[in-house]
Design brief:
The structure is a single chain. The protein has 499 residues and is α/β, with parallel strands linked by helices. The protein has helices spanning 7-19, 27-32, 38-41, 44-53, 57-70, 74-84, 99-102, 107-116, 118-124, 136-139, 142-157, 213-223, 238-249, 298-305, 318-329, 364-368, 379-388, 427-441, 458-469, 485-497, and strands at 177-181, 185-192, 204-211, 227-235, 257-260, 267-272, 278-283, 309-313, 337-340, 359-362, 393-398, 401-406, 410-413. The protein has a nine-stranded mixed beta sheet with strand order 5-4-1-8-9-10-11-12-13, with helices on both faces. A four-stranded mixed beta sheet has the order 3-2-6-7. Strand 11 (393-398) and strand 12 (401-406) form a beta hairpin. Helix 4 packs across helix 5 and helix 6 (74-84) packs across helix 11 (142-157).
Amino acid sequence: MVPHDDTAIVAIRDILTRLCKRSGLSSERLRTTEIDISPLLDLPVVRRYADDHGSTRLQAVLPVVREHARRLPPTHRVITDAELSLGLLEGTDEPDLDRAALYSQDLGARREYLSAHWRRLHELASADSIPPAPTVRSLRATPERRAFTALAALLVTGAVHTDDRYGRGPARASIGTLTVIGDAVIDHVYQVDTIPDARGFARGRFTANPGGKGLNCVVAAARLGIDVRFIAAVGDDEGGRRILDYLRSENIDTSLVKIVPKTATPITALIVNRTGVTGTIACTDDRIRLTDTELTAPLVRSALTDSDAVLITLEPPLPVIEQALGTVQALADRPPVLVTSAKVDSPQVLYRYLPYVDYLIGSLRELDYLVPEVPARSAPHIAEQLRMLGARAVCVVEEFGCTVRSDRLTLDIPRMQAAALTDIPGSRSAFVGALIYRLLSVAGDQGRPDPQRRVADEHDFAWATAAMVATQAFAGDIPGTMPTVDEVDRIIRLTAESH
């Protein structure tokens, strides 16, 4: 880290200290202050955030400061949160926390609350040891100076945060770059013997982990050695931080993940019976969604342009999906495009883009949502319906088997013998990651993935189907079941030996 007497750190510390006055740091304060905040606006982390999110540097300051304040040790975090009125505890449901006092419009009142509730605030910050509580007068001396110096040092150095709960995996050779546009949530998973009816009762176990179709797919691809960029949105809360830490632990690029201030990350409830059949309750929040405007940010467009493959889940709002497909469609050297299906309002809007979708993937029910006028009679039937609408290849992935229809393939891969369950959450994400791996594994003349290889063969689909089977060791953590190359190869080998 840059030494604490560094000129840039001192300058940023002094600006933040002055911005504490009155109501604290806010967008309105930044717009109207007479303080010269240009050194703050010129910080590389602020410029980078603004470029990534298509915002102004003025708009980027608050989310950047909030994110870096979270990375501080507990005492520094508690002080900077209260004095700058950052609202890091706004999303908590602690009944004994007086948010109005902690984030008062008056700095003096915030200091008084901080001093009086010093221990409790440290407990909420998960402090291992708690220093003696300062008086308001002593707080204004050394503790504040140290806290704001530490925050300024983080902002100036732009240090990348990792959480010790998750260890980064070893570096590995990449076979190509994938950009994924999708959702990330916290999954509440209930594993039960049987799914109860309206008046029923079931015993089971509960786990809560990062999840969402988009997140599961990026983890699946990363586990197979693909460099993955993720474009998604999370809340400005513990759930959002947990998701980001989890992604970073899997070596996934999170620089394009949008953090929505003062919001809670959505939760999805999944009830899974002993055979893997799953019922889902999605609790969405329209505030925590990507927007089509963000898809036009220079770094997002650059990510799509420079990718060896692009995966779009149909979870984000329709304008975002349209913007993403339209951007890729316009590229002179278009990468392979994969789309995973979901329920979409007005799916007819997407029909114009289907000729630019190389692989459309989903379960029978998920794909049936795209053709609401014609109920699906079977996997081959829905595949042909979507092929007539323009999709280049349709993959119906169901119960550890796969049906594929394209110009070159009429393929039905039956359920593998190694499949002991009916289904499992995340199995289709494993299929998607594995298919992308096979597409990018064939190198061109320069040793890079061949962008022209857009047609998978029977062996590729068989390998992707085996990846689904490898997810059966499910214990509540859906992305945690995504297999490695060796694990998929083992399923293929065992399948071959049994014939």
